[in-house]
Amino acid sequence: DAKSVADTARSSTPPIDTAPVVPPTPIAQKRIIVIGLGMVGLRFCEQILKLDTQKQYLLTVFGEEKYHAYNRVGLTKYFTHRKPSELLLAEAEWYHNNNLDLHLNDPITSINTASKTVTSASGLTISYDHLVLATGSKAFVPPIQGKEKPGVFVYRTIEDLDSIISYAQQHARRAIVVGGGLLGLEAAKACLDLGLQTTVLERSQWLMRRQLDRVAGEMLAATMADMGITTLNGSDTREIGGEGRVGEVIVNRSVEGRGRWEETIETDMVVLSCGIVPRDKIASKAGIECGKRGGIVVDDFLETSVSGVYAIGECVLHRGQLFGLVAPGYEMATILAKNLTSPSPFPRTHTFTGSDMSAKLKLFGVQVGSFGDYFAEETQTRHVSYVDPIGNMYKRFILSPDGKTLIGGILFGDTTDFSRLALYSKNKTPLSVSPLDLLAGILTPPKKSTSSDDSDDDGDEFEDSDQICACNDVSKGVIVAAVKEAGRECTVDEVRKCTKAGTTCGGCVPLVEDIVGRCKKLEW
Question: What angle do CA 132, 133, 135 make, to 5 degrees?
Fold first, then answer.
């Protein structure tokens, strides 16, 4: 049991007041302590190692889990291979080879901003020059009666998944997932893969309400039903019942046109997936400003209310907004690393002013995506949509009043043009086609060539500076440069590995493939 092993290890450590204190690093090299070894914490370390050409920093990293940083976006794959090593973002040797002072399974328990030290659960106290909080988020557990019963789980870490697998194998034939958002649907897919009869309870009137409109949400529910998953919208979970362990869930149902009623559903297991909350307790205890509803408050330089202490990722509250996607966290990590490695005196020329919350994913074999301001006020915009119930496809685009600028959109079933559309929306690029062409997948007018030699034109409508991969901040120019350096025989996978484009969520892979293919045809 991972938890009991950790507890045993912690109980054997000396009291904090007798623990060794590691002195500050020499003046020639400053220490950055990173609290949190998730995807964003690792990305920050990678960027510091890349940009710190003067080797002015020593990186010390504390991770709460026993695992090295792993890909939480790909957690559902764990139910297939059940190998933590398959999810790792970097091998153990990478940390050693890059001289990272790494402490796994040893969370920080306190921060002293006056003395600029942190103390870990093992009793280690270390001084820092800069402190970076990358503590991420945790699963939100609503105040449901009976939530402490055996058979109730959250879906967040590898340890959570191991617990779900073990319990399902021993005790469960049926599972209820509370929450129909992105994480809830991932949990539902996991339960289905475990051979469980699965039901999703969602408070809203349709699934993934934060990313999809009603049409797309209902199409997704129909797709899930075809796979054997029941969706009960308008379900407010009131109580988890059963003798000893989980046996039933009592919900208050409210469905438009059908009224309100109470319903009891038998089940053997419950997975709570009701959203996330920032992990800001360690910061709050240290007197660092946090939002009333959670989140470590940062400015545009990602600095907290305490000088020299920064925060990045899902633990952050920036301009009143929380960020529950990995791409904004990666952007924060890169910006902070650039500022910390800028020439002295510390100019801080890079700022974080918000992030594109576009998202593309594959759920139950169906591609879905939303980009830009996909819920823009209807009175100030124009909307066009297309529904194909036979092909299980839906597109909805939000346009400026004159129809010349793409503001946002929702895609279901066909996301081939997602990256291009997201870039058009982000850059406010004037459309050169009609809304009808846009729905038909025609993004640019037919090319009129007066010469058989088009070698000076790659046929790509994007500039080298345009961001192709939002997750890893990879521009078109970086991809083109990688192809030219590797040669015409290089594969798309080799370019992806080199640039990291398309290696996180995979949403931009079709566009990366297109750019690589076009680039190979050019004369260099």
Answer: 150
Residue pointed to by tokens 């909805």: 396
Q: What is the pLDDT of residue 470?
A: 77
> Does residue 15 share a domain with residue 128?
yes
The predicted structure's pLDDT at residue 369: 94
Residue for token pair 């870990």: 120
pTM higher than the cut 0.70: yes
CA 76/CA 397 separation, integer angstroms? 30
**219, 248: one domain:** yes
Three-state secondary structure call for residue 169: helix
The reported pLDDT for the residue numbered 32 is: 99
Tell me what pLDDT residue 25 has: 55
User: Is the preceding omega at residue 278 within 30 degrees of 0, hence cis?
Assistant: no
The count of structural domains within the chain is: 4
Q: For 434-499, give the secondary structure using H, E and C.
A: CHHHHHCCCCCCCCCCCCCCCCCCCCCCCCCCCEEECCCCEEHHHHHHHHHHHCCCCCHHHHHHHH
- Rounded CA separation 38/72 (Å): 8
Residues of the chain with pLDDT under 50: 1-17, 447-459
pLDDT attached to residue 352: 96
Q: Which two tokens stand for residue 519?
A: 């680039």
The CATH number given to whatever domain includes residue 486 is 1.10.10.1100
pLDDT of residue 347: 64
Domain extent for 183? 152-274
Q: Is residue 394 in a domain? A: yes
Neighbours of 261 (CB within 10 A): 10
**Residue 359 Rama label (left phi>0; alpha psi -120 to 50; beta):** beta
The first and second tokens of residue 175, run together, are 């599972």
Yes or no: say if 179 and 273 are a contact pair by the CB < 8 Å rule: yes
CA 508, CA 512: separation in Å to the nearest integer?
A: 6
